[in-house]
Amino acid sequence: MELRHFRQQPNIGPRDTAGLPDHVLEKIAAGEQPLKAIREWRCISQTDLADRTGVAVTQIMRCETGWLISKEALRLLARGLRVRDDLLTD
Q: At 43, phi and psi to the nearest 5?
């Protein structure tokens, strides 16, 4: 994909335009929070994700245990994890 086409898709991270691997989808289908499943697949700690996104570690912890957080925070986390926003916001 050329850069100019990529820029026309603001909802996609810089590297990942495909879906998630099957083992991550299986975890999510089994009831694991999407943020946690994707973060662990990426091998990123909660602290590192907080540093990348500016979202507080406590917000990340809450989201991973099922609490609701803002759509804006979820968008930032999706971008920090390099996945489509809708994987976390829907």
A: 60, 45
CB 31 within 8 A of CB 37: no
pTM of structure: 0.78
Q: Is residue 77 within 8 Å of 50, Cβ to Cβ?
A: no
List Cβ neighbours of 22 (8 Å cut-off, separation of 6 or more): none
Which residue blocks in the chain are alpha helix, DSSP H?
3-7, 22-29, 34-42, 46-53, 57-64, 71-80, 86-89
pLDDT tens digits for range 6-65: 344 444 444 554 678 888 889 999 999 999 999 999 999 999 999 999 999 999 999 999
CB-based burial of residue 13 (10 Å sphere; 0-12 exposed, 13-18 middle, 19+ buried)?
A: middle
- Name the DSSP class of 65: T
